Amino acid sequence: MPLDDAPRTDPSWVTLPGMDELLVERHDDGVVVLTLNHPDRRNAMTDGMTARWRETIAGLAADKDLRCVVVTGAGNAFCSGGDLSWLAERGAEDVPALRERMLGFYRTWLAIADLEVPTLAAVNGAAVGAGLCLALACDLVYAAEEAKLLAPFTSLGLHPGMAATYLLPRVAGVALAREILLTGRTLTGREAASAGLVTRAFPRASLMTEVMEIASRTAANAPIATRLTKVALAGGGHADLGAALRWESLAQPVTMASDDMIEGLAAQRERRPPRFGNA
User: Fold this and answer.
1) Range with the lowest mean pLDDT among 69-73, 99-103, 213-217?
2) Section 90-115 average pLDDT
3) Could you tell me which residues come within 8 angstroms of residue 111 by beta carbon, excluding any fewer than 6 positions away?
4) Mean pLDDT of 84-95
5) 115 near 69, Cβ under 8 Å?
6) What value does the mean pLDDT take over residues 196-222?
7) I need a labelling partner for 234 at 20 to 30 A (CA). Which of 14, 94, 110, 124 fits?
8) What whole-number distance in Å separates Cα of residue 84 and Cα of residue 44?
9) Do residue 31 and residue 155 come from a single domain?
10) Do 191 and 258 lie in a common domain?
11) Are 23 and 60 found together in one domain?
C-alpha cells in the first residue's frame, strides 16, 4: 500500500544496485546533510541503510568541525519506517532474539539524539512509524505542508516501537499521542505544525531552502554555548526552576570564560558576523 500518493516520476531517484543508501553532504559552514536514499522503497530502513547510518553517526560524533546535522529523504518520501519484509519469517526467531534485534535497530537509528550538535529533520514527504520517530528524535522538525505523518503500528498488529510511546507524548502531548497511536490518525505537515508535533511547516518546493537557511544560522552560533544549551533542553528541559538555576549558574560561567564570548562581544561591538572556533 503506498505511503505517499505523490507520483514517482523522476528516474534519477531510482536506487540502483550498489547505490549508497545514505548520502552524506558536507558544507563548509559545518552543516552535514544526511539523505535516506532508497526512494523506490520510500526510504525504508533496510539492513544496508541501517549499517550505513550506524557508521555515519559514529563518525559524526567524533567530528570536531560538525556544527549542525540535517536529515531528509530522497524522492517523495522522508522515511516509510522499518523494512518489515523479514517479519514474514518471524517463526525462525523467538522473543529474546527478536528483542535483541529490535533494541539494536532502535539504538542505531536513535543515536541521532546523542549528537552534541543541533539536529534538524526536513520531512519532505511521508514519515511513517519508525520514520516518524526518527524525525521526532531530532531537535527541530520541519515538514512539507503536504507531507503525511503517521504511526500505524497497531493496524499492522504491532506494538509501537522506536520509542514511539516516549517521543510522541513528549513532543505532541499525551492526548495527541493516544490519537495517533490508538486510532492511526494521519496528520499533514500543516496539521502537525498546528498541533505542535513538528516545529514548522513549509511548502514542499521551498522546504529544503528554508531548512538549510535555518541550519546555516544555527551552525553560525557559538559551538560551546549551543552544545550546552542542547544538553539543558534534553528530555524537555529541567525538572524544576531550582534545577535550571543550578545548571545555568555553572554552564553560563563556562561560556563566560570562553574565547567564544570574547569573539561574540567583539563582533557585536564591531557590527560584523562573529567568527567562532570549534568547540
Assistant:
1) 99-103
2) 88
3) 54, 57, 58, 61
4) 70
5) yes
6) 96
7) 124
8) 9
9) yes
10) no
11) yes
Strand ranges in 139-191 using DSSP code E only, listed in sequence order:
140-144, 148-150, 187-188
With beta carbons less than 8 A apart as the criterion, state whether 67 and 218 touch: yes
Tell me the C-alpha distance between 208 and 148, whole Å: 17
Supply the pLDDT for residue 274: 86
Do 151 and 246 lie in one domain? The reply is: no
The CA–CA distances, whole Å, from 168 to 66, 72, 105, 109, 136 equal 28, 19, 19, 16, 8
Q: Are 107 and 59 a contacting pair, CB within 8 Å? A: no
Calculate mean pLDDT across residues 196-201: 97
Radius of gyration in angstroms for the set of CA atoms belonging to the chain, rounded to a whole number:
20
Distance CA 117, CA 112 (A): 10
172 and 258 co-located in one domain: no
Q: What percentage of the chain reaches a pLDDT higher than 70?
A: 90
Give the C-alpha separation, 27 to 17, whole Å.
27
For residue 108, pLDDT over 50 is answered with yes
pTM above 0.85, yes or no: yes
Q: Tell whether 241 is covered by a domain.
A: yes
Let me know: does 108 contact 120? Beta carbons within 8 Å. no
> Angle at the Cα of 73 (from 69 to 74), degrees rounded to 5?
125
Q: Note whether 101 and 113 are same-domain residues.
A: yes
Residue 22 belongs to what domain range? 11-219
